[in-house]
Design goal:
Low-confidence stretches: none
Largest sheet: 5 strands, parallel
Mean pLDDT: 93
Strand order of the largest sheet: 2-1-3-4-5
């Protein structure tokens, strides 16, 4: 089985590095960026099955990235991460097509389960 390509997008660099490292140790093809603009650039260059996306970032917010990604890559699954998102933000994210949302700090085992479920769901919708 090929590793699941996962992109982590969060403005907290240490969080991105830690999650990328933990996912790679568990066999995922994980990469990370620290801005919405960097995420869009990378997504234009290579495909990812799942994007872990912080909702609140300076510049291009997670909800803006989600909206653009949904238009361009409808089969890609997005899991929203939030440390302090409002219920309205979460509701808007789900309306825009997020697969799931998770509160930070996130449990790595729960995160891995969500990534696998999202990847399987995306595979079904593509095929």
């Amino acid at each position: 089985m090929d590793p699941i390509p996962v992109l982590i997008v969060d403005d907290e660099g240490q969080f991105v590095d830690a999650v990328v490292e933990r996912l790679r140790l568990r066999g995922f093809a994980a990469e990370g960026v620290t801005s919405g603009h960097d995420a869009m650039e990378l997504l234009n260059k290579k495909p990812f099955d799942v994007v872990l996306l912080d909702m609140r970032m300076p510049g291009l917010s997670g909800l803006e990235v989600l909206s653009k990604a949904r238009e361009k890559w409808p089969g890609m699954q997005v899991v929203l991460l939030t440390g302090h998102g409002s219920p309205e933000d979460v509701q808007e994210g789900m309306r825009l097509g997020a697969f799931e949302y998770m509160m930070k700090p996130v449990n790595i085992d729960a995160l891995i389960g969500t990534i696998r479920a999202a990847s399987e769901d995306g595979t079904k919708s593509d095929g």
